[in-house]
Design a protein that fits this description.
Layout: H1 3-8, H2 22-33, E1 38-44, E2 50-54, E3 57-66, H3 71-88, E4 92-93, H4 97-106, H5 108-111, H6 118-131, H7 136-147, H8 151-155, H9 176-189, E5 196-200, H10 206-213, E6 217-222, H11 225-235, E7 240-243, E8 253-259, H12 270-280, E9 281-294, H13 296-304, H14 308-312, H15 322-331, E10 334-341, H16 343-359, H17 361-366, H18 371-390, E11 393-402
Parallel strand pairs: 1-3, 5-6, 5-8, 6-7, 8-9
Antiparallel strand pairs: 1-2, 3-4, 9-11, 10-11
Helix pairs in contact: 2-3, 3-18, 4-18, 16-18
Length: about 400
């Protein structure tokens, strides 16, 4: 990394004053990193000294610039959440945050022993499952916390169609807007011949608009007032859009479409969501869904604790494994008939969103968002990209058939 790049990621000069326990924090953090075996991490401390970790096994290469050794205490106490809080508070940076998290994921097995206290993981799990559980009352509050940041905010970095889910590039050199349209078309292709559709989680109306263009009659439901207002203006009466919890949906349809909404349901309510899909379908009807999953071998640890995204970005969220989703669907009388996985396309989508977000940083500030908020969202987009690029998370399109 050249000197200009280092200066761009350097913290204010006041960070250079080391705390009384800086030496102890430094030893704690470097000892934690010394467990790593995969790839190579170049670390530069507040005093300019450099260290390298990993190297014995293949893996990602990354750089980590530490401005304040006290980040070690945050990691020791709060694990992934503490590391993120350190970034949000300018305690560290990297010229490639996604690369840094890919390196961490590659070395997760070795590093996990020092990644937060058991008490922190227990408290995080209890907070997610009790205080933020997606009951009918709390669910709308959780959705509003994320999606009602303002339509103007999301318009700054999403494609012109206002789609906030993975695009489908399928190896083609196409724009983000074209890839989002390809995603909708593939989902709706699964529902050819299904005239009447219910969309669970209709967002800003992009899928509803495409469905109407293709000749479907569509009803859509959402829990976000801001999204509903936008979608109603967009569709201008061409679809029946309502502010409604999926558990209260009435009537039956030829097909159901739902895109990356299952992640917001919460594990306790997965069966209720499946029952809602089953109940919304006429016998023989089909649902086309797009879901984000977590790797089977990562789920147990993920389920036991919390993480930065659930703590600061998506309260109440919970990823399923593909096998858990399939088992839950089958238990509700829904058979999986089609499958497409495209994690690399989600990593590409997130990088484009991050590029747009960075390009519009001044506009984000003009909307009243703080530096801490901007760093939180920059981190969120980069961490998600790392998850998909590394295979820890995946995105799937699935067709579910209700038995006659």
């Amino acid at each position: 990394m050249d000197s200009k790049e280092f200066q761009r990621h350097s913290a204010p000069a006041s960070r250079g004053r080391a705390p009384l326990l800086a030496g102890a924090y430094e030893r704690l953090l470097l000892g934690w990193l010394d467990r790593a075996r995969h790839g190579l991490l170049a670390v530069r401390g507040p005093d300019g000294r450099e260290h390298e970790f990993g190297g014995s096994l293949p893996g990602p290469r990354a750089e980590w610039i530490i401005h304040d050794w006290r980040v070690a205490a945050l990691v020791a106490r709060r694990g992934d959440v503490g590391l993120a809080e350190g970034y949000m508070e300018d305690m560290w940076d990297s010229p490639g945050v996604e690369d840094f998290y890919r390196w961490l994921i590659a070395n997760l097995a070795e590093l996990r022993a020092g990644d937060g206290s058991g008490l922190h993981r227990l408290l995080g799990m209890l907070r997610d499952r009790l205080l933020r559980r997606n009951s009918p009352r709390v669910s709308q509050k959780n959705i509003i916390a994320h999606y009602d940041l303002g339509n103007e905010f999301f318009a700054l970095f999403l494609d012109p169609g206002m789609t906030y889910s993975s695009a489908l590039f399928a190896g083609k050199d196409i724009s983000l807007e074209q890839a989002q349209r390809a995603k909708y078309d593939r989902l709706l292709d699964m529902l050819d011949g299904h005239e009447s559709l219910l969309e669970i989680g209709c967002g800003w109306g992009a899928c509803a608009e495409r469905a109407v263009e293709r000749g479907h009659r569509l009803a859509g439901i959402t829990l976000s007032p801001a999204q509903l207002e936008y979608a109603r203006r967009r569709l201008d009466g061409r679809a029946d859009l309502k502010l409604l919890d999926y558990r209260k949906a009435e009537g039956q349809h030829d097909g159901v479409v739902s895109i990356e909404m299952f992640e917001a349901v919460g594990e306790r309510y997965w069966p209720a969501w499946m029952r809602a899909v089953h109940g919304a379908l006429r016998p023989g009807g089909r649902a086309a869904v797009q879901i984000i999953t977590i790797a089977e071998d990562a789920f147990a640890a993920y389920r036991r604790g919390t993480d930065f995204i659930r703590a600061y970005v998506f309260p109440g969220g919970m990823l399923s494994t593909e096998s858990a989703f399939t088992a839950c669907a089958e238990a509700a009388g829904l058979a999986v008939e089609d499958r497409l996985a495209f994690a690399d396309d989600y990593a590409r989508t997130l990088r484009l969103w991050l590029r747009g977000f960075e390009h519009e940083r001044a506009a984000v500030q003009r909307l009243g968002f703080s530096r801490r908020f901007i760093r939180t969202w920059r981190l969120y987009l980069a961490v998600c990209a790392a998850g998909f690029a590394s295979g820890r998370t995946d995105v799937l399109q699935l067709a579910l058939r209700r038995a006659a």
